[in-house]
Amino acid sequence: PQLGIKGNVPAFSNWWMKFQVNFVKAGTTKALSIDKFNATAIDVDGDNASIVENVKLDKATSVSLSPYSVLTVPATPLTACPEDTKLGLPVMCPDWRGLGFTTKKDGKTKDCKTCNNTGYLFSTCGHPWTGSDIAASGTIQNAVGIDTNAVNNMATFTYNSTDQITFTYGATSGAVVSNAGARLNSLWFKSFPLQPTGTLPLHLTDFSAAYQSAAVILKWRTANERNFSHFDLERSSNGKTYDELAVVFSGENTAAEKNYTYTDKNLNTAIPLFYYRLKMVDRNGAVTYSQVQVIRLTENKNTVRVVAYPNPVTDRLLLTMPSGWTGQKAVAQLYTLCGILVKSVPFASVNNNETIDMAQLNKGVYVLNISCQDKSVQAKILKN
């Protein structure tokens, strides 16, 4: 829709419009709950003079941005748990195998009862995360048209188990009077590759990993393979050094969607975590890496958790450490989704609460790994 203020927009004004979408069974008015879906806001930008657009999706589970995003996402607000009214923040569910993916292990739907497949828990009470109102704001700079390749101005919101969503589009103006107050807005019920067009030798639309029957099942999907050669599937046991696990050739290049699957059965169960990534090679030798997928092979009663908040974070990341680690040596490491170590913070004697300075890091998604003796925990951190 196009909404806003016609004619000249007064300085320091704001405007908004709220929408509600209900899902119903086809041909009826009966509410239909959707297990999981994405909604991507496109072209959240400005007018090159004064106006800044914004979008807010109520009760979204999470939001994803491009590593090159210019959007601002405020820190996740404290949210009341509907089960016990305690205020909390989202923390990753330890029973949700694989970071960012559901617990479908053998082609059948296997729900995670711990988090109800949201992937997150309330930090205070451990109940399944029910989502929060997540907003994203653009910059004054204008992005031309509704461009599905303009990932800098996109935000993909994830929802779990809902039959209704409510979202708000709006904008604000600064000190300069503008005549571009009638703004185009676009929300697509799908996700997009959040890498800029041209940086990949193909369009990698999905890459997932799941632990099933003593093996790790890796699946990925591509579109528009042009001048592409092959994949090197790489694995690591420490998230730093990777070894080649397999070479998968593309075959005939095509613009059509293609699906790939590889099963890793050669697993040392003494290693608690494995990291996987795709090295994508085109026919000219150019190389690009996928994001890293992390799989935990073993679970036990001594599983530990670290609460990291706020997430998304702007300056300081606050860590609530396991009580059993107090006084011990530990190290926190931050990796890009390509597996590059960008920050390492040692703790000579762990306190209950520690901090990591994130102010100098670029915007984007990072994998946080904290190790103490023979135990380690991971979480995805969004830096604004």
Protein described:
With 384 residues, the chain is mainly β. Helix content is 0%, strand content 46%. The protein contains no helices and 29 strands. It has strands spanning 2-4, 14-22, 34-42, 51-60, 62-64, 79-80, 87-88, 90-92, 120-122, 132-137, 155-162, 164-173, 182-184, 186-188, 203-212, 215-223, 228-236, 243-249, 258-264, 273-282, 287-289, 293-296, 307-309, 316-320, 330-336, 341-347, 353-357, 364-372, 375-383. A hairpin with a 6-residue loop joins strand 23 and strand 24 (316-320). The chain is globular. The chain starts with a strand and ends with a strand.
Shape: globular
Q: What separation lies between the terminal Cα atoms?
A: 28 Å
Gyration radius (Cα, Å) is: 22 Å
Low-confidence residue ranges: 98-109
Sheet with the most strands, sense and barrel status: 5 strands, antiparallel
Précis, in short:
This protein has 384 residues and is mostly beta strands. It contains no helices and 29 strands. Strands 17, 18, 20, 21 and 22 form a five-stranded antiparallel sheet that branches.
Question: What labels describe this entry?
Answer:
29 strands, 0% helix, five-stranded antiparallel β-sheet, 384 residues, mainly beta, four-stranded antiparallel β-sheet, globular, single chain
SSE order and pairing:
Layout: E1 2-4, E2 14-22, E3 34-42, E4 51-60, E5 62-64, E6 79-80, E7 87-88, E8 90-92, E9 120-122, E10 132-137, E11 155-162, E12 164-173, E13 182-184, E14 186-188, E15 203-212, E16 215-223, E17 228-236, E18 243-249, E19 258-264, E20 273-282, E21 287-289, E22 293-296, E23 307-309, E24 316-320, E25 330-336, E26 341-347, E27 353-357, E28 364-372, E29 375-383
Antiparallel strand pairs: 1-13, 2-12, 3-11, 3-14, 4-10, 4-12, 5-11, 6-7, 8-9, 15-16, 16-19, 17-18, 17-20, 20-21, 20-22, 23-24, 24-27, 25-26, 25-28, 28-29
